[in-house]
Automatic annotation (TrEMBL), chains A, B, C, D:
<dbReference type="GO" id="GO:0051287">
    <property type="term" value="F:NAD binding"/>
</dbReference>
<dbReference type="Pfam" id="PF22698">
    <property type="entry name" value="Semialdhyde_dhC_1"/>
</dbReference>
<dbReference type="InterPro" id="IPR000706">
    <property type="entry name" value="AGPR_type-1"/>
</dbReference>
<keyword id="KW-0560">Oxidoreductase</keyword>
<dbReference type="GO" id="GO:0003942">
    <property type="term" value="F:N-acetyl-gamma-glutamyl-phosphate reductase activity"/>
</dbReference>
<protein>
    <recommendedName>
        <fullName>N-acetyl-gamma-glutamyl-phosphate reductase</fullName>
        <ecNumber>1.2.1.38</ecNumber>
    </recommendedName>
</protein>
<dbReference type="InterPro" id="IPR050085">
    <property type="entry name" value="AGPR"/>
</dbReference>
<comment type="function">
    <text>Catalyzes the NADPH-dependent reduction of N-acetyl-5-glutamyl phosphate to yield N-acetyl-L-glutamate 5-semialdehyde.</text>
</comment>
<dbReference type="GO" id="GO:0070401">
    <property type="term" value="F:NADP+ binding"/>
</dbReference>
<comment type="similarity">
    <text>Belongs to the NAGSA dehydrogenase family. Type 1 subfamily.</text>
</comment>
<dbReference type="InterPro" id="IPR036291">
    <property type="entry name" value="NAD(P)-bd_dom_sf"/>
</dbReference>
<keyword id="KW-0028">Amino-acid biosynthesis</keyword>
<dbReference type="InterPro" id="IPR058924">
    <property type="entry name" value="AGPR_dimerisation_dom"/>
</dbReference>
<keyword id="KW-0963">Cytoplasm</keyword>
<feature type="active site">
    <location>
        <position position="144"/>
    </location>
</feature>
<keyword id="KW-0521">NADP</keyword>
<keyword id="KW-0055">Arginine biosynthesis</keyword>
Length: 332, 332, 332, 332
């Protein structure tokens, strides 16, 4: 008899990936999965890749209280209400943005509405954060863009090797990052064969990225790419001092199971991380401008969402951090 | 200390998938992986998705003899020579075509060269085959097209519900099925955004499909599709009697862990099987022509190659058949 | 001052392609384009590829009466009402299914609702049809699947070389063929990386294909493919007599500007027809089954919709049939 | 009888697009097309999208001297030798890099070998360049990355609105930009479903971009994207003064037929430019960093190669600049 877990918001892409990871996790038992408009349907009617998983989606709120730990994979702004209905003893990992920010004003500016509060930030690779997560009952798992960019940037800023006030990021995401709602601009016909920037100049994840990475000024341009999964972030910053940026990263992540600084000269490819909880990194100095260039790749549904959440849950539950997670991508 | 396994031909796509599955298999220890032109390189230099796997590719022939079981993922025609060098006690699963056919003349006609021989055919879902595989030291794992089409067709022919002399198949494969050699027609620029039939009228896998499925006349048209993985076979046949084809399949596979006959009206999608060892099936009678239409989907590198091979190996080694294999696809 | 044309239903994919073709047509002047929910928007807000086309979409019904010829690119079932409002002297090319069928019962069975009537069928390559179109004021342009399959099949049946009672077709279409409505199953995340059959066993285009090709029994399985444009149809039939199917097709299309029977051994690829009004064909006899196999490729928005409609309009207006149309695809 | 043109290097992707554009150009007659290993083959055997174009590829050097104008679409480093064999009266447009740079040292550093020389730079939208091209017999047409980035950047630097010493670019290209040679890393299996950066920190096109745009320090990271055509460049720069960057661009390109500054808030998408000679631009100030962000999209084979070359040729031949070129993309 394993640890009892539940997923609220199981009909979206992150929810589906959570169900897949939980099904393959040796210590977790899925006791409930809830959804809004899909309540009452078998899981496999919503997620064809889970054919054989014998479970019916419940209505939001149903049966979550029986779980030892609940994953919330809800639309932004809905986590607080669901969390409030859970008994105090139930541990929670929120995959949404609601509890990530410390700065209520930033929440107001980018999301609007009431700031729900601040939970322990769920990125175990940040200094001190692994222990904090393990000691918490409420964790706000990091967002997909924030994970990709923070893992590339935070050690350089912490080491004094990169100027936190001069960071420029272009990050391209696969379409699952845009969610599963039926919108014309997300139709296959519109997306295949092309690249589309969006929310240029003011993306709502900038405050989270600054908070987590230590950057004080950051230009971020997000691009929608014709692939289902993956984020590739190109992070450039003005160097401070003369540290080799690759060595700074390699030292920071030497003991991390999920973050790989690739051999010198080998650059990350998103496809190599698909389906895994790995993040691949590489860095160099640009010959012409002298800027640091770090490229970071991960699976937005893996280390950027569901995998990250399971990693946090493992810590919160006292399990080995890597249980039920793979570092190896499904490629080609 | 687990069972010692090795992979010969580890630099191709099936080889890479084998390494990934072995790395996640709780009972198997990878002791060697060999390659031809990539010998001497770290595995991750050839398979970026396996960053973190600490192994150097050996030259073909090296160190395979230390293994309890060897997987051969070599180009067609090369398995016999490598197998001959292995001690009799080493079990072998061949992913190539060399030992699949019983009919030497068919080998000559489609492949040319000397027919290597006939090993136990590695498709456990065929009647009697599971026990035969478990009792064998040499198994010729089924091919990707043959697995997809045979699983759709064999129970219908065996039940007398489909005419074996009137079968028409169109099957589309993702590009990994075409292998990893550098050819202009396999370049992304040539493949993306289009569909291309190939080897129309005379595909070399037809004899294997007929042998395994019981069909006596079969028209098969293969199509290259712009996706990395997956095969979708549309199998039509003239019905005999009035059995419901979906019910025939559902009865045949009721106890199979990897073959799912989907709920009536739900049709297989290749993406739902990506990265898994599942095969999804659905069948109906065409309203206008009265023909049986079966659609079959699987991952050509999973149930069509590496997953299938591990399933056979599990049987040969006395392990539970599903060990280290997943029925859940990585989607979207 | 050119011939005045208008497009009703200009916000969909076929409508957008019509606008592009009209803009490049030396004899046609676009005087109006209408849409439903997008009325009032500039064309380029709906079709980014037409940036620079200075026209605002009107409401359906507006200004169409000023045109010499109107293209209807409306959802199925809406053409009759719009056509009824146009003066008798206005020529009409309907891209919808409403006026294609001669058999009202078939309309009822597959589409439901009132059968609108029967107009001249707009496939100029059928025997006698070119003159009929040129003499008509009302033309029902052929559908995308029907064009692809009929061009492959009709000459073989007409020549007595193929059995009209034993035809099996599998046809894969790009996503633009499924239209531009916001549906979850058409999202890029769902479509990329996979193949999905749909409407298996009873597709609504079967009656049109039988009517146009002469087939009397036809099994058709449609598949959605991860590409924006293109249809690839694999058409197999039992041969009658011993005519070479490729030669039958080559003779039938020797003088056709838009239908190319490729050199023996070269098989059609959808990408080669993208953006053009070309249809590529190839045929052979299957070695194992003896069946005729014809593969046909075209652009579902080109020869399968907007290009076909412009070809018909050219005939109706007394212009050279190829005016404003290209046989060369945009590839890679 | 039109103007006689020839294409050297017709078997590559840019060569194929040139043939397509010339075939649709009302004033140009194609008299010869040459290739290296494909010499002797019909054009359509190499470019299936040109089925129906009745021409056999000649060996390099053959028959070019009969032309009034020759397009060179050769691998870098080969143009000088071919140009030297042409009579002085033959006009030449070179699509390669050989004659673009004014700085021989930059050539040595990034390309190596002898610097061939410097021809008139073929980007008509640069101030004064249109007239220079019209007066030249030898023109070095701009490269695909340089066209995309220079059109975004040059007016801002020229207007004193952007700091030429602080430019950061991330630019993603479709696979046709990588050429048509058979390399494993360009296989569809490797490219589909992922993004891969390459030549990070030192791309050979940086000197051309700096020369053409006026930038004095430029960090450029190129990324390979899973689409056949298109470049999307995100160009950021520190602003000087308080000019609105979108207005600077709109003023600079107000009369340009091929460069469209989109309506405020609408961002370029590569797919909208496919098959056309258009470049789409948009700009804003990033809220957090204050940096200028310009996004530029074009078809790397169109305005980035063959379309650009035809535009130059039109100028050199005294034809209207837009003859035979379209501003409308083939989408979806």
């Amino acid at each position: 008899m394993g640890i009892r877990v539940a997923v609220a918001g199981a009909s979206g892409y992150a929810g589906g990936e959570l169900l897949r990871l939980i099904a393959g996790h040796p210590e977790l038992d899925l006791v409930a999965a809830t959804a809004h408009s899909s309540a009452g349907k078998p899981v496999s009617a919503v997620h064809p890749q889970l054919a054989g998983l014998d479970l019916v989606l419940g209505g939001t709120g149903a049966a979550l209280t029986d779980a030892d730990l609940v994953f919330l994979a809800l639309p932004h702004g809905q986590s607080a209400a669901v969390a409030a209905q859970l008994p105090g003893g139930v541990k929670i990992v929120d995959l949404g943005a609601d509890f990530r920010l410390r700065d209520a004003a930033a929440w107001d500016r980018y999301y609007g509405g009431t700031h729900a509060g601040t939970w322990t930030y769920g990125l175990p690779e940040l200094p001190g954060q692994r222990a904090a997560i393990a000691a918490s009952d409420r964790v706000a798992s990091t967002g997909c863009y924030a994970a990709t960019i923070t893992l590339a940037l935070a050690p350089l800023i912490a080491a004094g090797a990169a100027d936190p006030a001069d960071v420029v990021v272009v990050a391209a995401s696969g379409t699952s990052g845009a969610g599963r709602s039926a919108k014309v601009n997300l139709l296959a016909s519109e997306v295949m064969g092309g690249l589309s920037p969006y929310k240029v100049g003011a993306h709502q994840h900038v405050p989270e990225i600054k908070q987590a990475s230590g950057a004080t000024s950051l230009s971020m341009t997000p691009v929608l790419a014709p692939m289902p999964r993956g984020i590739l972030a190109t992070v450039t910053a003005r160097p401070l001092g003369d540290a080799d940026p690759r060595e700074v990263l390699a030292a920071a992540y030497a003991d991390e199971p999920f973050v790989h600084v690739l051999p010198a000269g080998v650059w990350p490819r998103t496809a190599a991380t698909a389906g895994s909880n790995a993040c691949h990194l590489q860095a160099t100095l640009d010959v012409d401008s002298g800027r640091i260039v770090v490229v970071s790749a991960l699976d937005n549904l893996g280390k950027g969402a569901a995998g990250q959440a399971v990693q946090c849950a493992n810590l919160m539950l006292g399990l080995p951090e890597t249980t039920g997670l793979s570092v190896f991508g499904v490629a080609p």
